[in-house]
Design a protein that fits this description.
The chain is an alpha+beta fold. Helix content is about 20%, strand content about 35%. Strands 1, 3, 4, 6, 7 and 8 form a 6-stranded mixed sheet that branches. A 3-stranded mixed sheet has the order 5-2-9, with no helix packed on it.
Length: about 160
Amino acid sequence: MTSTTKTLAGMAGVALAGVALAAPVQAQYRQTISDNPAKCAAGAGPAVRVTVTGIKESKGTMRVQSYRGTQQDWLEKGKWINRIEAPARAGSMTFCMPVPAPGTYGIAVRHDINGNGKTDIFADGGAMSNNPSINIWNLGKPSYKKTAFKVGNGVESITIAMRYR
């Protein structure tokens, strides 16, 4: 192998390594993370500071999930990016949800009141970014266009109002 060939091979390896490093950002799904307020501190990001209001009871589990704000990913099984779970506290709670890169995202929140991990439509609460109306006709799944919002390099703050039956 000549020195020119070695140099070109090395450059190709560096280029491929760059592709390999960039790919996980696009392919990242299903990461359960802990709530880390430092990721929403001044100068941090990209992230979303999610304040959830109207939490009915201090029992069960709150689950906050981020999705890409696209038709292909929004509320699709297994297509959530990050998930934070925490014991519910009546009133309001704030979570810091990091996102992989600037872009368009949606947030879904569920209050599993009895903590059984199942959706109990007569007890559990739910809500989504931009607080769209949820009714029997759309079965709780409003269009990604109604829930999507932009996140830049910094921290975006949103408020989501819980809804219960």
